[in-house]
Design brief:
The protein is built from 4 helices and 3 strands, in the order H-E-E-E-H-H-H. With about 120 residues, it is of the alpha+beta class. Strands 1-2-3 form a 3-stranded antiparallel β-sheet, sandwiched between helices. A hairpin with a 2-residue loop joins strand 1 and strand 2. The relative contact order is 0.18.
Length: about 120
Amino acid sequence: MFDKIKRKLAAQWLAQSNAVPDLTLNTSDKIYLATAKRSGGKLTYVYILACLKTLNNNYEINPTTQIATFDNAKRADIFYETVKRVMEYQNAAPGVRQIRDALSEDIAAFNQKTR
């Protein structure tokens, strides 16, 4: 009987829960330079400007734009905020700050295009 009550309470809790996925981004697979978020109709787009990691553990000199598309605005917000936190974490490293300085024109162009 106790198990039946536990299952019922757990089902009620899950039905009321606003649980969201715990998104984890790898902090070393790319250097995140900039991000932006836009909504269009029922979709939300998260744009990322990043330098991708090469096979020999270096990073590409030319940044790449990536787009993640979501049909759930809340999940898009979570992903966007996670990318921003990874960027903050990476920016603490002096090498990443130097890369950002060197690519400042690319970052400015990305920010202009994704306004």
